[in-house]
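Milestone 3.1: sequence recovery, worked example.
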């Protein structure tokens, strides 16, 4: 982001395309091996426990593997309402390809020594693989924005602006976030020349979310960069772009304890498994 505006009556249009593959999240391998979930037995007698009916102590291990690819094409337009006031809109067109594989297996904690009780899947056996896949295409979350270049000096300039992201994408198809977000930001920079540095800082207020993502957190954003004119027709640009999600739900590995007993032995036993969980914290 640069502090200068386009100028009154000036119109510009741009197209950006990005292809993304999602292999890891929070250090966890999405392709398989790190996301091991555990399901407990139905509370058959509804007593709030899995001990009085001993066979309820069995659990199911579900190993999840996700293959996620996204393609995003953004149409961007900007118009100078006044010499120092720009307005713009960004319209993303999204495509999401998602495949999921769940390898499930029954762990007979409570019935391992009891041949009279055997848990198995409907297809038979103690193991089963579930496969699901889908593709969705359409409009993402549209962004409208404005920027005011309130200071323009001989060697530096400064601007403030706002971005309003609208929940126009279908959140149930992972095309949108389901949240309304308002970003307020400021940016300063050197006047155009052979070397033009710049820096910016912003804060995003978030409201809402989707069933998939939960409520989106507020976030801080910060940038620093420069333009370097190497030739009258060639400019080199570099930017550092960062953000910190505030009090976000983070994916962590946790230890979960399962209690069970055998039919012939009322002793309550415990076993632990490593499984993904969540905790609140800043993510940057």
């Amino acid at each position: 982001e640069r502090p200068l505006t386009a100028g009154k009556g000036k119109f510009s249009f741009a197209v950006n395309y990005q292809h993304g593959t999602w292999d890891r999240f929070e250090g966890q391998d999405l392709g398989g091996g790190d996301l091991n979930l555990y399901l407990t037995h139905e509370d058959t007698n509804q007593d709030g426990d899995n001990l009085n009916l001993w066979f309820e102590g069995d659990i199911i291990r579900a190993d999840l593997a996700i293959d996620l690819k996204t393609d995003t094409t953004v149409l961007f337009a900007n118009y100078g309402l006044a010499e120092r006031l720009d307005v713009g809109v960004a319209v993303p067109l999204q495509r999401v390809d998602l495949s999921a594989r769940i390898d499930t297996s029954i762990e007979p904690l409570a019935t391992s020594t009891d041949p009279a009780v055997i848990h198995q899947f409907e297809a038979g056996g103690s193991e089963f693989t579930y496969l699901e896949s889908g593709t969705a295409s359409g409009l993402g979350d549209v962004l409208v924005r404005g920027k005011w270049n309130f200071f323009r000096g001989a060697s530096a300039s400064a601007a403030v602006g706002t971005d309003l992201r609208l929940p126009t994408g279908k959140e149930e198809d992972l095309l949108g976030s389901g949240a309304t977000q308002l970003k307020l930001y400021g940016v300063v920079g050197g006047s155009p020349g052979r070397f033009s540095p710049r820096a910016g800082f912003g804060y995003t207020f978030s409201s809402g979310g989707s069933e998939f993502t939960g409520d989106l957190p507020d976030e801080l954003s910060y940038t620093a960069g420069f333009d370097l004119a190497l030739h009258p027709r060639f400019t080199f640009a570099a930017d550092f772009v960062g953000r910190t999600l505030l009090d976000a739900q983070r994916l962590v590995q946790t230890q979960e304890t399962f209690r069970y007993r055998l039919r012939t032995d009322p002793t309550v036993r415990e076993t632990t498994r490593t499984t993904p969980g969540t905790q609140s914290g800043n993510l940057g």
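The chain has a mean pLDDT of 93. The longest strand covers residues 234-262.
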